[in-house]
Design a protein that fits this description.
- By secondary structure, the protein is of the alpha/beta class.
- It has a single domain, classed as Divalent-metal-dependent TIM barrel enzymes (TIM Barrel, Alpha-Beta Barrel).
- It is 43% helix and 13% strand.
- An eight-stranded parallel sheet has the order 7-6-5-4-3-2-1-8.
- The longest helix has 24 residues.
- The two termini are 15 Å apart.
- The mean pLDDT is 95.
C-alpha cells in the first residue's frame, strides 16, 4: 500500500487537456490523483484553483513560477533584472495569498551562457528572502544551466527554511546529461516533476528544448527502479508533470493527443501507481 499522495500538473492553461480548469481538476480527482499543481497566470487564476481545491478536497501542491525572464536575472540590464525579480516575487505573493506551500522556479533559461555571477546571486537572494518572509518555500528545478543551479543551491544553503530542490526526472536525462541531480543536493528535495524522456537526440551531445518531452513514465529510457531508489527517502507527494503535446518536428507525444482526456488521465494514473509501487518496494528492500 502506497503512503504518498499522487499529484499531477494541470494542462488546461496551455490548451493541452481540452478542458476548462474546474473540469480538469475534477476529472484528475475522479481518475485517482489526490492533488495538482498549476502554472502562474495571475492571482485570479490561483484563487480559482484554490476554490476548486477546497470544493474537491484536492491538495494544491505548488505553483510553477514563470521562467521566460530568468536569464535577465544574471545577464540582463538592471531594469530587465528588476522586472524579472518582481515577476518572481509576484508569484511568491500569489502562493502566499492562496496558501500554496511551494513555488517551483527555474534559475536559468538558455543554452549558450555558463557563467553565474554575483549580480544574479544578489537577485536570487532577494527572491529567497521574500519567500522566507512570506512563509513560502522555493523549490529550484534542474533545467539547462547546471552551473547556475549549483550557484543558487549553494546560496540557498543559508536559507534551508525557505529554499530547496525540485527534481525533474526527464530534465535530468536531457538537460543534465543523466547526472544524479538529487545526489548533488542530499536532504534538500522539496518537490518532484516526474516524467520520462529519451535523452539527448543530437549525436554530438548538443542539447535543445526539443529534447524535453515529458513522456509518461515507462515510455522512454528512464531507469525507473533507479529513480525509485533515489526517491525512497522523500516523503512528500509524488508529483507528475506530463504533456500530450509533441515538440516541433517530433512526434513522441502524438499518441497521447489522440486519446480522450479520460483515457489519457487513466493511463497517467496507472503509470503513477507503478512508480509509487516501485518507491514503496525500494523502501522495503
Amino acid at each position: 500500500m502506497r503512503n504518498q499522495k499522487l499529484c499531477l500538473a494541470l494542462m488546461s492553461p496551455y490548451g493541452a487537456a481540452k478542458l476548462g480548469t474546474e473540469e480538469e481538476i475534477r476529472l484528475i480527482q475522479k481518475t485517482g490523483f489526490e492533488g495538482f499543481f498549476c502554472g502562474w497566470g495571475n492571482l485570479d487564476y490561483l484563487k480559482e484553483c484554490r476554490r476548486i481545491a477546497a470544493d474537491t478536497g484536492m491538495y494544491f501542491q505548488s505553483v510553477h513560477a514563470p521562467f521566460g525572464k530568468c536569464r535577465d536575472l544574471w545577464h540582463g540590464s538592471r531594469e530587465a533584472a528588476e522586472a524579472a525579480v518582481r515577476e518572481q516575487i509576484e508569484c511568491l505573493e500569489g502562493c502566499a495569498a492562496v496558501e500554496v506551500p511551494i513555488m517551483v522556479a527555474h534559475v536559468f533559461i538558455g543554452f549558450e551562457d555558463h557563467s553565474p555571477n554575483d549580480f544574479g546571486l544578489a537577485n536570487f537572494e532577494r527572491i529567497i528572502r521574500r519567500a522566507r518572509a512570506l512563509g513560502v518555500k522555493i523549490a529550484f528545478e534542474n533545467t539547462e544551466g547546471m552551473e547556475y543551479l549549483d550557484a543558487v543551491m549553494k546560496l540557498a544553503e543559508g536559507y534551508h527554511d525557505a529554499a530547496g530542490f525540485c527534481w525533474d526526472t526527464g530534465h535530468e536525462m536531457c538537460y543534465n546529461y543523466a547526472e544524479d541531480m538529487p545526489g548533488k543536493y542530499p536532504g534538500r528535495l522539496l518537490a518532484t516533476h516526474i516524467n520520462d524522456n529519451l535523452g539527448i537526440r543530437d549525436y554530438a551531445g548538443r542539447i535543445t528544448w526539443h529534447d524535453d518531452l515529458h513522456l509518461l513514465p515507462f515510455d522512454g529510457v528512464g531507469d525507473w527502479e533507479g529513480i525509485a531508489r533515489r526517491l525512497k527517502d522523500f516523503d512528500g507527494p509524488l508529483t507528475f508533470e506530463l504533456t500530450t503535446h509533441s515538440k516541433p518536428d517530433r512526434h513522441e507525444n502524438d499518441k497521447y493527443a489522440k486519446l480522450t482526456p479520460e483515457e489519457y488521465l487513466a493511463e497517467a494514473y496507472a503509470r503513477a501507481c507503478r512508480v509509487a509501487t516501485l518507491v514503496q518496494k525500494a523502501r522495503q528492500a
